[in-house]
C-alpha cells in the first residue's frame, strides 16, 4: 500500500515543522506546500497556523488558496485545522473584524479580560458525540493550548470537545471530513500524537 | 481546568547537558535528547533549554540540539541563551522551538521584544527576568533589581527595577515571564515568594517561578502563595531528589490542578 500523502499548507503563518514531524510519526508522507495542485491531489490536508487571523486570511487570499481549501472540503478530502487553522474554518472572527472560510457555522471571539491572555498551558477537554478522529481520547484528558481568541460554535458537529477558560469554548470538533483542534496536538504528548494517528487513519 | 505547569530546565554546553548531572537509570545522562524524552515520559509539561555558552558556535550547536529534541519530544520547548536578534529567534523556531527566552538582549535593546512579538506573536517571546534583592531590601519596602549577563558569575546590574522592567516588557509584547531569583538560585531553600507575589499583583501574562526549589513544598508555595502559573526547576530533577511524577502527585494531592493522566487510558485517570 502506498503511504498516505498529507499536504500541510504553508501560507507563512508560523512554524510547520512540529506539525509535519507529528504527522510523520503517525506514518504519513508529508508535503509542506502552497501549490494548489499539490494540495488538491493529496489524500488529506492540514491547515496549521499561529499568529493573527486577519493576517492569515489575507495570506490565504494573496496565495489564492481560499478556493483551493473550499474545493478540498467539497471533494470530501479529509481536512484538519490546527489552532489558528481551526479558527479560520468558521464564519467570522472578532480579530480585525474578519470574514473567515465559512466551512462550519460559528464565530471567533476574544477571551474576556478577567483571565490571563493568552490562554496558555494544559487544559481539560470534555468530549461530546462520536467521530473516529477522537478514538482513544479519554474524556477529561489534557491538551496544550496557546491562544487569545476562542471558537463560539453555532452548528452541531458529529463530535466536539469543550474546554473552560472563563467561558466554555469549542476546543476541537469533527464533522464528516472536517476536523479541527484549538489546542496543539503536536505539543500535547502521547494523546496529541493519537489524534494525528486518528487523522492519518481516517485519511487512509 | 488550566493546570499549573512543572518545567525542568536543561543547561546545554557544547551539545550536551552540562556534566555533573546524575539521575536514575542513565549514568551518562548528558544527551539532551535522552534527557528530554525521559522528562517527557515522567510528565514534564514543557522543557526549557538554556545555551550556557551563548557564542555563535554555541547557537549552531543549540539549533541542532533543538532540532533533534523536536523530532522525538512532542511537548512545548523553550530555548534561551545568547539570542540577540529576530534572525536568531527564527533559527530556533524553525528548528522546532515554540518559545524564545531573552534576557540581556531585551534589556540592551527593548525593541527586540516588540520585533519578536510582531514577527512570531507574543506567545513566542518569554522574558527571562534575573532579579536580585536590592541592597536596602526590607519586607515592608521590597525592591529587586535586574541583572544581565548572568551566565558569568552572577552577571552585572542592568540599572533597572525588576518589577517596573517586567511591566514594561509585557507592554512591549512578552507573553510570559520566567522569573529567576538570583538570591535563591541553587540554594534549594525555596523560591523568592515575595518577588513572585509582587509580580503577580501587576503582571497580566503567565509567570514561571525559577530558582531555589529544594523540596516539594517550595514548589507548592510558589504556585499557591506566590501565585505563579508554573514552576521551573533544575537541581531537584537532575540530581534525582524527586521525579517529576512525585512532585506532580504531591501538588495534585494538595488540591492544585495538575496534568496527571498522560496516556490513552492506561495510566492514571483522575
Please tell me about this protein's structure.
- The complex is a heterodimer of chains A (204) and B (270).
- Chain A is 25% helix and 33% strand.
- With 204 residues, chain A is an alpha/beta fold.
- Chain A has one domain: 3-Layer(aba) Sandwich (Rossmann fold).
- In chain A, strands 2-1-3-4-14-13-12-9 form an eight-stranded mixed β-sheet. A four-stranded mixed β-sheet of chain A has the order 6-5-7-11, covered by helices on one side. A two-stranded antiparallel ribbon of chain A has the order 8-10.
- Chain B has a single domain, classed as Aldolase class I (TIM Barrel, Alpha-Beta Barrel).
- In chain B, helix 2 packs parallel to helix 3.
- The interface between A and B is large, with 38 and 36 residues.
DSSP strand count of chain A? 14
Count of DSSP H/I helices of chain A: 6
N→C terminal distance of chain B: 13 Å
* Second-tier CATH architecture of chain A: 3-Layer(aba) Sandwich
Task: Give the overall pLDDT of chain B as a whole number.
Answer: 87
Helix percent of chain A reads 25-40%
SS content category of chain B: alpha/beta
How widely separated are the two ends of chain A? 10 Å
Strand order in the sheet with the most strands of chain B: 1-3-4-5-6-9-10-11
> What is the overall number of helices of chain B?
10
CATH H-tier superfamily of chain B: Aldolase class I
Indicate the percent of residues in helices of chain B: 25-40%
Largest sheet of chain A: 8 strands, mixed
Counting helices, strands and paired strands, the structural category of chain A is alpha/beta
Q: On the 0-100 scale, what is the average pLDDT of chain A?
A: 94
What share of residues are in beta strands of chain B? 15-25%
What order do the helices and strands come in, and which of them pair?
The complex is a heterodimer of chains A (204) and B (270).
Chain A: E1 5-9, H1 17-25, E2 29-33, H2 36-40, E3 44-47, H3 53-62, H4 66-74, E4 79-82, H5 84-87, E5 92-93, E6 98-99, E7 106-110, E8 119-124, E9 126-129, E10 142-147, E11 149-153, E12 159-165, E13 167-175, E14 178-181, H6 189-203
Parallel strand pairs in A: 1-2, 1-3, 3-4, 4-14, 5-7
Antiparallel strand pairs in A: 5-6, 7-11, 8-10, 9-12, 12-13, 13-14
Chain B: E1 5-13, E2 16-17, H1 32-42, E3 47-51, H2 56-72, E4 77-80, H3 86-95, E5 99-102, H4 104-108, H5 111-120, E6 125-133, E7 144-148, E8 156-161, H6 162-172, E9 176-181, H7 193-202, E10 207-210, H8 216-223, E11 230-233, H9 235-238, H10 244-253
Parallel strand pairs in B: 1-3, 1-11, 3-4, 4-5, 5-6, 6-9, 9-10, 10-11
Antiparallel strand pairs in B: 1-2, 6-7, 7-8
Helix pairs in contact in B: 1-2, 2-3
